[in-house]
Write a structure and sequence with these properties.
It comes from Streptomyces graminofaciens. By secondary structure, the protein is of the alpha+beta class. The chain is about 20% helix and about 40% strand.
Length: about 140
């Protein structure tokens, strides 16, 4: 199993409701980071990252979360359930993809990130509310 860290940008960030429920006690490190090539849309109580590889404005703020090795498998399963992601399921709201994230010190790491599934992304681009600046916390 590829044990990549996770890039989190919404309810899994420190101080947000799902952080303690899913990540407390399971992480080795949580570091501020950004991800290029994605933009954020407001969802019903949580954000969606939508891939926009050609967008010069595509930058999302979040954290790179590194799981403790002994907790990795359980955490991956829990996050997939939270995000309603099942590999290859056309009903997915999110897809888990591997993308580069940049830590505050400039280091680039490969990380899992949950992005809007293609059908969801189409709807968000047409009718969604873009979160300017790419920081879900700053939208409030």
């Amino acid at each position: 199993m590829l044990m990549l860290p996770f890039f989190v940008y919404g309810t899994l960030r420190p101080g947000e409701p799902n952080h303690d429920l899913f990540l407390r006690g399971r992480t080795h490190a949580e570091e501020p980071a950004t991800m290029r090539g994605v933009v954020l849309y407001d969802g019903p109580g949580y954000p969606y990252a939508v891939e926009e590889p050609g967008s010069a404005d595509g930058l999302v703020t979040g954290e790179v979360v590194t799981a403790r090795p002994e907790a990795y498998g359980e955490l991956l399963r829990s996050l997939d359930l939270l995000e309603e992601y099942a590999p290859g399921d056309p009903a997915n709201l999110y897809e888990r993809v591997e993308r580069p994230a940049t830590l505050d010190d400039g280091t680039v790491v490969r990380a899992w990130v949950y992005v809007a599934a293609p059908a969801v992304a189409v709807r968000l681009r047409a009718w969604g509310k873009l979160i300017e600046g790419g920081d879900w916390r700053a939208r409030r």
